[in-house]
Amino acid sequence: MNDLRDYAARLEALARTLGFTHHPVEFELVPDRFMMETAVYGLPVRMPHWSFGVRYIRELVQRQMGLSRIFEVMFPGDPCHAYLVDANSLAENVLVVAHVLGHADFASRNALFVRSMAMAGGHILEQAAARANRIEQALAVHGQARVEAVLDAALALEAHVDLQRELHRKPYGPPAAEAPARDDPFLERWRSLPGEAAAAAGERTGRPPLPPRPETDLLWFVAQHAPDLDGWERDIFLAVREESFYFHPVFACQIMNEGWASYWHARLLREADFLPNDLYLAAIKAHSDVVRPHAAGRTLALSVNPYHLGFSMWERVVAAQGLEAARRIVAEEDDFGFVRNHLDATLAEELDLFVYEASDDGRIRVVSRDIADVREAILGPRFNFGAPRVAASAVANDGALTLVHDHAGDGRGLDLDRAKRVLDYVVRVWRRPVALHTVDARGQPERLTVAPA
Q: Containing domain of residue 320, as a range?
């Protein structure tokens, strides 16, 4: 432990000389079980829910099959918190320290991380623990069945937030007085299109429509407008929403972030002349394991390793454009911009990237190696926080809620059975009928309706 502390301090000093700028990082060695639980829950202390147990079992199975290993978990903030496994070798944890410093530098520069910290503050672990404590109090007062029903609904909608809005969002104002979330020339131009002004004027006659326009921030909308929601239930929805805002930059920048951290852990190790040769070689061996494709040898990989892809892309960017240009990219882009702007056909061919489809009998067929198709295959699952785009479109006089799936806009179909289960959760807290308009597998209109039991 003393050796690790010494190497960590010297690596951080080296990083500063190379232009790193980040909040302090607190490292802590923890048992492997704690690490796995933290990775599964997303936070060391978080609201209790059965779905985390399901995720834990899945992670445990993958671990036993040799498909997963967690080296570190890092939480950006002020300070940043990083957990390292105490059973790792010294060389592995030296590598992890360098990797975490890369994450800390990325979080200090990237616009999504900076915005998230400005809205939520830099103390996510303490805030999550406080939320978990409030839910424990609710369990004691209201019982497990009621609290779990609210958590079921909130976590079923955890990806359905409007990230263009502020975290601490104000209620709807009068239709004429409601201001846009922020100055946006595109939105102003959209409002000036033919028909939009007339529609806005029509909304001001009679009972104002709810919502005044389609609302994709479903967690916020339910918290604010569910007809019979108690205060503690509303707090749960807003707590889940706050955590979604915190986790979004991690999700939206995974390839960039893991690649940047991998680029820098390799570079820091190379330039750390204070590391003994045997430790350096062992750490570089661990680096090779982290940044290789999932498949071994000449076997094709059917999923993208974000460490491997991101590391390869950043090496290419730094070599071609220089470090300052790379840092501007870190600051300004997310994975969508990074992959579309900096994954070219030459690198895709070197990395053997392709688009495939699987038939019902289990056969795999490569369908495209075109760079545009490859980019979209990588980015498609990341659109809209990985969730279909669904908006609350109307609340009737009797409180019935209508949801509309933007199937044309997001290019996604819905698993209708899963959508029905989500509606079952939502109706328990909305306590009025809830309907969802979408399309079936053939593209034909489909309406799912669930009423309270």
A: 292-387
- Interatomic CA distance for residues 330 and 222, integer angstroms: 35
Specify the DSSP element, H or E, that contains 429: helix 416-430
Residue pair 107/22 in contact by the 8 Å Cβ criterion: yes
Q: For residue 133, what are its two tokens?
A: 């404590």
Placement of tokens 């570079």 in the chain: 267
Cα–Cα distance measured from residue 4 to residue 82, given in angstroms and rounded to the nearest whole number? 14
Could you read off the pLDDT of 401-435 as tens digits, one per residue?
999 999 888 776 788 899 999 999 999 999 999 99
Name the more confident of 8 and 179: 8
Count the Cβ atoms, other than its own, within 10 Å of residue 158.
Answer: 18
Is residue 326 included in any domain, yes or no?
yes
Q: What is the pLDDT of residues 203-225, one digit of tens each?
A: 444 678 999 999 999 999 999 99
Q: Supply the DSSP string of 315-342, one letter for each residue.
A: HHHHHHH-HHHHHHHHHH--HHHHHHHH
CA distances from 231 to 46, 127, 169, 221, 236 (A): 20, 19, 17, 14, 9
- Overall number of domains in the chain: 1
> Distances from the Cα of 278 to the Cαs of 5, 90, 91, 285, 303, in angstroms?
18, 11, 9, 11, 33
Tell me, yes or no, whether 21 lies in a domain.
Answer: no
d(CA 173, CA 212): 10
pLDDT at 201: 45
Q: What are phi and psi of 29, to 5 degrees?
A: -85, 130
Residues 100, 82: contact at Cβ < 8 Å? yes
Query: Quick one: pLDDT at residue 50?
Result: 76
Please give the helix or strand (H or E) that residue 367 lies within, else none. strand 364-368
Closest by Cα among 379, 302, 305, 372 to 335: 379
SS3 302: coil
d(CA 329, CA 333): 6
Q: Can you give the pLDDT at residue 205?
A: 47
Q: pLDDT tens digit string along 346-374?
A: 999 999 899 988 877 778 888 899 999 99
Give the pLDDT score at 71: 77
Residue-wise pLDDT tens digits, 330-343: 999 999 999 999 99
DSSP letter for each residue of 93-151: HHHHHHHHHHHHHHHHH-HHHHHHHHHH-S-HHHHHHHHHHHHHHHHHHH-HHHHHHHH
Asked if residue 370 belongs to a domain, the reply is yes
Please check whether residue 450 is in contact with residue 427, taking contact to mean a CB–CB distance below 8 angstroms.
yes
Residues 377, 383: Cα–Cα separation, whole Å: 11
pLDDT tens string 296-325: 444 445 578 899 999 999 999 999 999 999
Structural domain contains residue 432: no
